[in-house]
Amino acid sequence: DVKVTQSSRYLVKRTGEKVFLECVQDMDHENMFWYRQDPGLGLRLIYFSYDVKMKEKGDIPEGYSVSREKKERFSLILESASTNQTSMYLCASSSGQGGVGNGYTFGSGTRLTVV
Amino acid sequence: GEDVEQSLFLSVREGDSSVINCTYTDSSSTYLYWYKQEPGAGLQLLTYIFSNMDMKQDQRLTVLLNKKDKHLSLRIADTQTGDSAIYFCAASLSFGAGTTVTVRA
After folding, report:
1. Distances (CA, A) of A54 to A22, A70, A104
2. For residues B76 and B13, is the Cβ–Cβ distance under 8 A?
3. Which of A41, A48, A90 faces B93 most closely, judged by CB atoms?
């Protein structure tokens, strides 16, 4: 069964901490994505990557960075966590060059609370 | 990103058909998607339609695409309690806010 695995289901961090959210996929997909999901706002794209060591800003990149050193792993970094970054974070991957192709495979999500 | 709009709530009686509507702004989207999110779970791809198609049917699911009006709909026939979930419309990299479908007995 193909998978996108997010390392933590729940995280609680303090304001100002540096936070790493890890995502690994086993489908040899070229493309990986980070979204945050908030009630009433749906999913908003933070960053995405179409290849190793490549990254592109999404709609809301401020306060975040990413790392893609290996094809299967895409990390989201909160440089200095703030309470407005409390959210559900969803990682997704897809095949197809430079796009969504025939759809995403999503991880189960990481619910981050910043206190 | 592009704007994707959908209504937030839909209540339907078990056995009836559900219709979830979505509008989008970017006509260059090659594919349009519907995802389902059950409580406490991640999103699961339900179906997608290629932009040069008008309709796609997959068992109880029918997707209709009106490219001129940039309108996408998902019809679920014979809605069951297991269909209670949040349904997201997506175009390119952008998602709508999600429609919460509640199935009542």
Report:
1. 16, 10, 19
2. no
3. A48
Residue type for position B103: V
- Chain-chain contact of A103 with B43 (C-beta, under 8 angstroms): no
From the list A43, A102, A108, the residue facing B31 with the nearest CB is: A102
Question: Measured between CB atoms, does A47 come within 8 Å of chain B?
Answer: no
Query: What is the token pair recorded at B69?
Result: 């009006």
Cβ–Cβ under 8 Å, residues A35 and A101: no
Q: pLDDT tens across B26-52, in order? A: 877 888 999 999 988 889 999 999 988
Q: Rounded to whole angstroms, how far apart are CA atoms B31 and B45?
A: 13
pLDDT tens per residue across span A33-92: 999 999 888 899 999 999 998 999 999 999 999 999 999 999 999 999 999 999 999 999
